[in-house]
Amino acid sequence: MTLNSPHHSAPSGSPAVPRFPVVVIGAGPAGLALGNVLRAASIDCLVLETESRAFIEGRPRAGVIEEWAVRGLEERGLAESLLARAERHTACEFRLGGRRHRLPYQELTGRHHYVYPQPLLVTDLVREYADVRGGAIRFEVRDVRLHGLDTAGPAVSYTDEDGERHLVRADFVAGCDGARGVTRTVLPDWARISRHDYGVGWLALLAEAPPSADCVLFGVHPRGFAGHMPRSPDVTRYYLQCPPGDDPENWPQDRVWAELQERLAVDDRPPLTEGRLIEKRVLDLHNHVVEPMSFGRLFLAGDAAHLTAPIAAKGMNLALHDAFLLADALIAYLADGDTAGLDGYSDACLRRVWDYQEFSQWLSDVYHGASSGDPYRAGTTRARLRRLFDSPRAAGAFAEQYLGESSPV
After folding, report:
1. Per-residue burial over 207-237, b = 16 or more CB atoms within 10 Å of its CB, e = otherwise
2. With contact defined as beta carbons under 8 Å apart, do 289 and 304 qualify?
3. N or C: which end of the chain has fewer CB within 10 A?
4. pLDDT value at position 116?
5. What is the C-alpha to C-alpha distance for residues 230 and 87, in angstroms, rounded to an integer?
6. Is the separation of the CB atoms in 173 and 26 below 8 Å?
7. pLDDT at 70
8. How far apart are CA 170 and CA 25, in angstroms?
9. How far is CA 201 from CA 123, 204, 239, 263, 365, in A?
10. 66 or 6: whose pLDDT is higher?
11. 220, 385 in Cβ contact below 8 A?
12. Rounded to whole angstroms, what are the CA distances from 392 to 95, 104, 112?
């Protein structure tokens, strides 16, 4: 990509049209992290979000943040609340055949995970961006349209919550609005989208129940995978493998807890602590990757560029990685005219994206092989797990991938 001069005038005849160096579409972790870093560098940007502020601050999503990502937030002044409130996890545990196999990844690598639900991080980031750093943000916008992305002066139009139509001009547009957002609808025909469908569904659950263990649990069971992910002292995330496209209403509370108790049972631990289910939805597990992640003056970040099933808890971490790289690249260009970061943005992001995709696929085979109905897959799953449990080197390699520390930057 060859960029034009970082300073160019607005088209003649439109002196009243506001202009921002960067317009960010979407107020998720990627868009808000990007906006905060730009504001800290005194670069104005406008964030447009289709939902309300209350909605994005309460939307249940991921909760595991890798240590390198927290370091990145801390370096940019965005981790004060996280570091004060997040839980640290130092191990995970596989459960199968009535036995538990603990993998102490901090002992193996010196690194750990943070557990901090995404709604809390989004709340922190939007408060810092809008209330502290004075960033411009519009909630509940509709009919967002992108114009002139292949020119030096792109524009974005939208309708605000009062029904008034607006047009803003920009130097760059950052598409951080997810896989179903408007930025995905304007990709050129030559964009390549690679897709993978796991052929598996997960029933995603939030329970008003304290965690039943001090770490993440992976239940590998002939009846299907089960996962236990602590979120807070009073709330636990669970997953249950189910047929893709299943109806959540097929899973009343009694059936959910019976399956969780069965698939996560071990001989030397008490049953799970049960509680009221406050969320229940079916996820059909699939991944996709958009290549490249930049098209003219449009740069994609987060789920708009790549969707990673929650198999390895990588999605929010990838979104933050994109945001850090894109923010640094935009600052270098807008401040100094340095194009190197923007020219290399897509390749730099995709190295980590594909590394995480591959690890998620490997871990999916481990989770789902026992319930596949295929004796060969079940046998290879047992072999992989034996190697993981019996070989410190294999356990260390798994831990590095699980923590994201071995991924290229």
Report:
1. bebebbbebbbbbbbeebbbbbbbbbeebbb
2. no
3. C
4. 93
5. 9
6. no
7. 97
8. 12
9. 29, 9, 10, 16, 14
10. 66
11. yes
12. 18, 11, 17
Cβ distance 395 to 388 under 8 Å?
yes
Q: Is residue 3 pLDDT above 80, yes or no?
A: no
Check if the beta carbon of residue 93 is closer than 8 Å to that of residue 100: yes
Euclidean distance between CA atoms 53 and 139, whole angstroms: 6
Six-digit token string for 257: 């807890």
Q: In which residue are the tokens 């009343």 written?
A: 252
DSSP type of residue 369: G
383-397 average pLDDT score = 95
β-bridge pairing 216-219 and 92-96: parallel
* Distance of alpha carbon 264 from alpha carbon 221, whole angstroms: 8
Amino acid residing at 110: G
Q: Which residues contact 266 (CB under 8 A, 6 or more apart)?
A: 95, 98, 99, 100
Contact 82, 114 (CB under 8 A): yes
Closest to 61 measured CA to CA, from 110, 10, 117 = 117
Angle at 289 between CA 323 and CA 67, to 5 degrees: 40
Which pLDDT does position 16 carry in this prediction?
82
Whether the CB-CB separation of 368 and 241 falls below 8 Å is answered with yes
- State residue 408's pLDDT score: 56
Residue 140 zone, left/alpha/beta (φ > 0; ψ -120 to 50; rest): left
Q: What is the pLDDT of residues 256-280, one digit of tens each?
A: 999 999 999 999 999 999 999 999 9
What single DSSP character describes residue 255? H
Model confidence pLDDT, tens digit, residues 97-122: 999 999 999 999 999 999 998 999 99
Q: How far apart are CA 284 and CA 260, in angstroms?
A: 19
Return phi, psi of residue 210, to 5°.
Answer: -65, 150
Q: What is the DSSP string of 261-324?
A: HHHT--TTSPPPPP-EEEEEEEEEEEEEEEESSEETTEEE-GGGTEE--TTSS-HHHHHHHHHH
What is the C-alpha to C-alpha distance for residues 34 and 47, in angstroms, rounded to an integer?
10
Confidence of residue 60 (pLDDT cuts 50, 70, 90): confident
Question: Which SS3 state, helix, strand or coil, does residue 181 take?
Answer: coil
